[in-house]
Design goal:
Number of strands: 16
Strand content: 25-35%
Largest sheet: 7 strands, mixed
Radius of gyration: 18 Å
Oligomer: single chain
Shape: globular
Helix content: 10-25%
Number of helices: 7
Order of helices and strands: EEHEEHEHEEEHHEEEEEHHEEE
Length: about 290
């Protein structure tokens, strides 16, 4: 578990799983021959063989009067087409509780986009039915994102997500569809970062002059900071996703905005710093509590 303080707002990472290798289907360009020369990725984001290390985790945002969660991972008991993601039995809710957050206390769920590894714990299986995991929360989903998935043909990767992870919270009356620049509350707002999906957003946090950005899948892995042209095979629009990464580097490069990667392995967060003609993620100057 990592946590960061942004002004008077606390952000806490709760991990569902962290894996090494097996990421070629997401970033086919990221082979050992191309990763090993990027020595700054070791030891946190790649191993000595050049295999990527990635994480699937949720991020809890706590203010003085709010407890919110961003992206809810894969979830238990769900049949998925990726074998290592199917019918999981992981202690995510127990780990959330250990981090100090009861599921009944969460008042807002934010979805950066509607992929299976970002909405899974929206619901949980109880007595054979999918029920909202966070029954006292408002679930914020991008209107453009939802409309795309509601009207799209199911794809192999995300098959089943509407039925078991989205529709039940709609049926419970907990969903609010919002624009891509939606202000959640003072200091927390959506920032449009399309490309990975049509309505993809990142989450911007601002407090007492300090800033952080939760990336969602605008960056899957820190290697895309240096290799901004590497688009994911899972991107809806690979040209648009590259343009989004370029825009984020221009906007936040060499700034004091803390970048918190939704799939970045421990230590997960850092600052975009120029190195030669490219950028890297500087994790050495962050104030993370592990």
């Amino acid at each position: 578990m990592n946590s960061w303080q942004v002004g008077n707002i606390k952000i806490t990472r709760v991990v569902e799983m962290q894996v090494t290798g097996g990421s070629r289907f997401i970033l086919p360009q990221a082979i050992p021959e191309t990763i090993l020369p990027m020595q700054w990725l070791q030891p946190h984001f790649a191993d000595e063989q050049g295999k990527l290390i990635m994480s699937i985790h949720a991020l809890v945002i706590e203010t003085a009067d709010r407890k919110m969660i961003v992206d809810t991972c894969i979830g238990n008991d769900k049949k998925r087409n990726i074998a290592n993601w199917s019918n999981l039995q992981l202690p995510f809710l127990e780990d959330l509780q250990k981090a100090g957050y009861d599921r009944f206390e969460i008042d807002t769920v934010m979805c950066t986009h509607l992929h299976v590894d970002h909405v899974g714990w929206n619901t949980m299986l109880m007595d054979g039915e999918w029920i909202p995991t966070f029954p006292n929360a408002e679930y914020l989903m991008g209107k453009k994102e939802y409309e795309y998935w509601h009207n799209a043909e199911p794809d192999q990767l995300n098959e089943g997500l509407l039925e078991d992870s989205v529709k039940p919270v709609f049926d419970a009356g907990l969903v609010k569809l919002v624009p891509m620049d939606f202000e959640v509350c003072e200091g927390i707002y959506f920032e449009a970062t399309p490309g990975h999906t049509p309505g993809h957003v990142s989450i911007h946090i601002e407090s007492q002059g300090q800033h952080a950005l939760i990336t969602g899948d605008s960056f899957h892995h820190p290697c895309q900071i240096e290799k901004v042209q590497w688009s994911s095979s899972a991107d809806y629009d690979q040209v648009a996703s590259k343009q989004t990464r370029e825009s984020l580097l221009t906007k936040y490069g060499d700034s004091n905005v803390l970048i918190i990667g939704t799939h970045f392995a421990t230590p997960t967060a850092g600052y975009l710093r120029k190195k030669g003609s490219t950028y890297v993620l500087d994790v050495d100057s962050t104030d993370s509590v592990i």
